[in-house]
Design a protein that fits this description.
This protein has 241 residues and is of the alpha+beta class. Among the domains are: 86 residues, Alpha Horseshoe (Serine Threonine Protein Phosphatase 5, Tetratricopeptide repeat); 71 residues, Immunoglobulins (Immunoglobulin-like, Sandwich). It is 48% helix and 20% strand. It contains 6 helices and 7 strands. Helix 1 runs antiparallel to helix 2 and helix 4 packs across helix 5. The radius of gyration is 35 Å and the shape is elongated.
C-alpha cells in the first residue's frame, strides 16, 4: 500500500513539474513579445531564447517564439543571416500561417513573407483516370497530406516528398519529388489498369460454361470417367403357396 502511494506521489510530482515547465516557457514567450513591442530587444531575445530551449511549447507557441526572436535580432541590429534561421524554423512548423499585417511592423512583415515565399512551393497532381487518391508523404514516413485528383498541395517546404497515387483496379504509382521554392510544379500520372488473371479472363470471354462442364466430367486426379451403365434389378422371389 505504501509503495502504491509513493508511486502516485511521484507521478503527480512529475505532472506538476511538467505543467510548471510548460507554463513557465509560455510566460517566457509572452514576456519576450511584450519586451519586443516595448523596444527592449535585449530582454526580448533573452526570454524568447529560453522559451525555445525549454522543449515544452506547442507548435503555435514555438512559431511565435521563433518569429519574434528573429524580429528582435533584426531590431537589435543583427543581419538577416542571423535572424533568417528562426524564420525558416517557424515557417516549417506552420507553413500555412501568415502574419497579421496590422500588428506586424511593415518592414518585418515583408522580410518574413519574402523568406516564406523563398522556401515554400506548391504541387499540382493530375491523373488519368481522375479522382485517384494522392498521398504526399514527408521524409520521416508520415503522411503529410491526402487528396483526390486533380489535387493542389500548397505551402510545402522545399524538401523531398514521396508522392503515391492509387485507385481501385489500377496499379499504384509512386515517385520521389523535390519541390522548387516559389513555384507550382505539376505531376501528371497515367495509371495502368491491373491485368486480370487467366481464369478471370477465360470466364469473362464465355468459357465459364465449358470449364464448369469439364470439371464435372474430370475428377481431381485428372482421370476421365464414362457414365456407368444401368444394371437390371433382380427378380423378386415367388411367394410361398
Amino acid at each position: 500500500m505504501k509503495m502504491k502511494l509513493l508511486n502516485v506521489l511521484i507521478f503527480l510530482s512529475i505532472l506538476s513539474s511538467l505543467a510548471f515547465s510548460q507554463g513557465n516557457a509560455l510566460r517566457q514567450v509572452e514576456r519576450g513579445m511584450t519586451f519586443f513591442y516595448e523596444a527592449n530587444f535585449e530582454e526580448a531575445i533573452a526570454h524568447l531564447d529560453r522559451a525555445i530551449r525549454s522543449d515544452s511549447l506547442s507548435k503555435e507557441e514555438l512559431f511565435d517564439a521563433n518569429v519574434y526572436l528573429g524580429f528582435a535580432l533584426l531590431r537589435k541590429g543583427e543581419d538577416l543571416a542571423h535572424a533568417r534561421p528562426y524564420f525558416i524554423r517557424a515557417i516549417k512548423l506552420k507553413p500555412g500561417v501568415t502574419l497579421d499585417a496590422l500588428r506586424t511592423p511593415p518592414d518585418l512583415y515583408q522580410i518574413f513573407e519574402q523568406t516564406r515565399q523563398a522556401i515554400l512551393g506548391n504541387l499540382y497532381v493530375i491523373s488519368d483516370p481522375m479522382q485517384s487518391f494522392v498521398s504526399v508523404i514527408d521524409t520521416t514516413g508520415q503522411v503529410f497530406l491526402q487528396k483526390e485528383t486533380p489535387a493542389l498541395f500548397e505551402n510545402l517546404t522545399s524538401d523531398l516528398y514521396y508522392v503515391v497515387v492509387n485507385k481501385n483496379g489500377f496499379n499504384e504509382y509512386s515517385t520521389v519529388f523535390e519541390l522548387k521554392p516559389n513555384m507550382t510544379d505539376t505531376i501528371a500520372v497515367f495509371l495502368l489498369e491491373k491485368q486480370k488473371s487467366f481464369l478471370n479472363r477465360w470466364w469473362t470471354w464465355g468459357g465459364g460454361v465449358a470449364v464448369a462442364t469439364a470439371l464435372l466430367l474430370i475428377d481431381f486426379g485428372g482421370n476421365q470417367e464414362s457414365p456407368k451403365e444401368k444394371e437390371e434389378l433382380p427378380v423378386p422371389p415367388k411367394r410361398p403357396e
